[in-house]
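Work Package 4 report. The design task specified in the project plan requires that, given a folded chain encoded as structure tokens, an amino acid be chosen for each position. We show below one input record used in the internal validation round.
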């Protein structure tokens, strides 16, 4: 965690240098983010879901107070992501661990976000607990033209594993068509036996990407989410065949800027003394500059982890871990058990 502070300072210095070297040029800066909202459930029992197992439903009292406090805290975090460079919250943010459309509507109406005029794209997934993924977008920057969901249809011993959908949203970021896939892959519960589940989820991603490229071989594609795998695991390296370095990218490759971060010891979560970097944003080669400094269309400038000190445990055994909302059946007053991730896309103004 402390090392990330060093790299963030380095980022500020290099970004200042970059823009000073381009004196006389102006850029659009758009933030794209992903955030696992850690069990953002309402307080109403849904008889069609196992939502009774959610931490907020297990509370003995003050459910409503806890719910609105969590909404406020999450809204506050989202409002700050990327704002130091883009001067606003994310143009697009994928989210995971939400129960339904209603909680998302409450979130975007929070005092921190209501003036941003976020739109919502959400589908109910077949997940047993009823947790879904969704996409939020600032209407002034992003105009969706198509969205649909896909499910990996995973089986274990001939029984279905009810997991989250993968949400595809296509639309115009300003005047450029981009495609965003939001993921929340199967958990590591079951240890090595769960590896094929995430490989199957990764394979579903490859099919979505292939479908997009059938219509546009040079499509600009982002796939983001809580993948429940670190960047070096088989779902990424063997199935998606992600690349760690820009210089090794060929047309059609997928770049994962979070692989290098993971190898430096950075993380977005931790469990039982094991840190992890499950939250990532991957980009098609068409969104990566590869050293040519050509920003005539939107290209990646920097990938980051949003882990401000106020979002961390500051003392004790878990110092530096995300300050989560729930622990051992109680509300801790935190934010999430994951840090958000985000990227800056930049484009030279004409």
């Amino acid at each position: 965690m402390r090392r990330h502070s060093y790299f963030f300072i380095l980022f500020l210095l290099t970004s200042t240098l970059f823009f000073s070297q381009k004196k006389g040029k102006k850029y659009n800066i758009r933030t794209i983010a992903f955030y696992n909202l850690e069990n953002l459930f309402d307080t109403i029992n849904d008889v069609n879901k196992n939502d009774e197992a959610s931490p907020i439903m297990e509370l003995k009292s003050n459910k409503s107070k806890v719910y609105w406090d969590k909404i406020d805290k999450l809204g506050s975090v989202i409002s700050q992501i990327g704002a130091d460079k883009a001067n606003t919250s994310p143009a697009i943010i994928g989210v995971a661990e939400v129960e339904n459309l209603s909680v998302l509507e409450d979130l975007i109406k929070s005092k921190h976000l209501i003036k941003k005029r976020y739109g919502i794209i959400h589908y109910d997934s077949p997940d047993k607990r009823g947790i879904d993924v969704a996409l939020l977008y600032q209407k002034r920057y992003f105009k969706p033209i198509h969205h649909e969901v896909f499910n990996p249809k995973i089986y274990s011993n001939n029984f279905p594993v009810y997991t989250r959908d993968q949400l595809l949203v296509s639309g115009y970021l300003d005047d450029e068509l981009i495609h965003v896939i939001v993921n929340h892959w199967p958990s590591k519960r079951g240890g090595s036996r769960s590896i094929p589940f995430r490989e199957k989820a990764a394979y579903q991603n490859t099919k979505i990407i292939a479908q997009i490229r059938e219509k546009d071989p040079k499509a600009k594609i982002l796939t983001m989410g809580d993948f429940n795998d670190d960047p070096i695991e088989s779902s990424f390296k063997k199935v998606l065949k992600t690349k760690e370095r820009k210089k090794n990218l060929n047309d059609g490759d997928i770049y994962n800027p979070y692989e290098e971060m993971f190898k430096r010891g950075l993380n977005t979560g931790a469990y039982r003394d094991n840190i992890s970097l499950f939250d990532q944003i991957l980009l098609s080669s068409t969104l990566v500059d590869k050293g040519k400094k050509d920003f005539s269309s939107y290209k990646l400038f920097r990938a980051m982890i949003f882990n401000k000190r106020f979002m961390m445990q500051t003392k004790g055994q878990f110092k530096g871990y995300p300050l989560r909302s729930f622990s051992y059946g109680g509300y801790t007053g935190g934010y999430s058990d994951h840090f958000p991730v985000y990227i800056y896309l930049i484009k030279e103004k004409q």
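The first helix runs from residue 2 to 21. Validation will be extended to a larger panel in the next phase.
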